[in-house]
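Forum > Structural Biology > Help requests

Title: Can anyone predict the 3D structure of DUF1573 domain-containing protein?

Hi all, first post here. I have the sequence for DUF1573 domain-containing protein but no way to get a structure on my laptop. I'd be grateful if someone could post the structure tokens.
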Amino acid sequence: MSDGERNVSLSASKVPTSSPRSLQRRLARIPDFFLDEDVPVLVRPDNLRWSDPEMNSSERIPMEHRGGERVPRAIQTGSVRRPRSRLIGWIGVTGLVGVLISGLIVVALPSTPSPPPPRSSLPRTPIRIVHNFGTTISDGSPLRHVFRIKNPSDQSFRILEATASSPCCSGIEPLPDIVPGGDWLSIPVFIRTAGRTGPQQVMFAIGTDSPAMPTILCVALADLVEGFDLEPLDRKNDLVVGRPMKMVYRAIHRRVADVLEAAPTSVSIPPPFQVAFISPARERIGPDHLIEWQRDLAIEIPAPEDMGRLATTLRFDGADGPVASRSLSWEVHPPLRAMPNALVINASDGVVERHIDLRSQDLPFSIHDVEGSIIVDHRVDEPLVIEGQATCRLTLRLDGTRASERSNAVRIATDHRIVPELRIPVLVLP
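Reply #1:
Sure, ran it for you. Structure tokens for DUF1573 domain-containing protein below:
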């Protein structure tokens, strides 16, 4: 019997729970590099049948009688040595192939120059400093701030230039010529607020010969509001001839929280207008802790007699004297208007059709007559007695004589008390 084989006699009580087939399946799943030692493997002769739960019931271990007892027949087992030379050889071949391929790639690629040395880590972009004034009252006095920045190096640098983005409304105070190493540079700036409201952004650029900060960009932000404001509360801000009107506004007085300023206690307006407060005064905290005093007022406007612009001035007084004044103006329109208020046609069009809308804002009216040198026909879509709006459709004919005049007119006669007649010019283009 060879060294790799041995006979083992198994009794019925020592029959293994796993068959050689199950054991071989488990061993087949073990990688080769784990099997570097002698691993016992059951060897099944072709003429033997093994007891295995996965096998048919007929595949039983053969039994024999020995000394009057029934015992299993002898089973041959053996051991198989799986050397690690296979794994080592595979790794060696793979590594050799990889080295050859790498060498071919290196030989095939053209030689590239060595990368340039790294540049200096000093910043080349402008250094940006921002200051926000917040919501500030535009009372005419300039806003001032001092930007400060430290020279990060131990060498001094020179100020080459200093400019503001809007020189008309802002500026930079005098700066030193040289900033020593490690010292702080103060940049005083100012922004004029007279006549300016709304969001503001002003930039101040400082140029130096320092490699660390060649450009210093100072940005100043502010939201300017008026110390006293008058906001209309009516959507319609136009007047009509012959109709009295009442306009409602809201007066707003703003002040800084730690500054005591007298709020308006009375309001006046020149005659024939009349004005009065119609709500109690109230205060609230606005943006950036500004104190806002608010009060509504109404202006009584007598019926205008003529079209055009109507203007007046409001004056607000407090306990210590005048607080503010505001100028107001309104456009006065006729109560009966034509839209469009002019017609433009081409001389080459021959016969054309146009329509004109008449709109009344106060009284009902009716159309008596429509005249014009170029009118061929006309009709009104609404009844003769009209409240609000009427549409007049016109048929116009152009000939050489009338077109040469270059200007014609359509006259619409009504029974409106204030606007008895409307004249719509007609421009004829060659």
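Helices lie at 20-28, 85-108, 400-404. The domain at 336-429 is CATH 2.60.40.10 (Immunoglobulin-like).
Shout if anything looks off.
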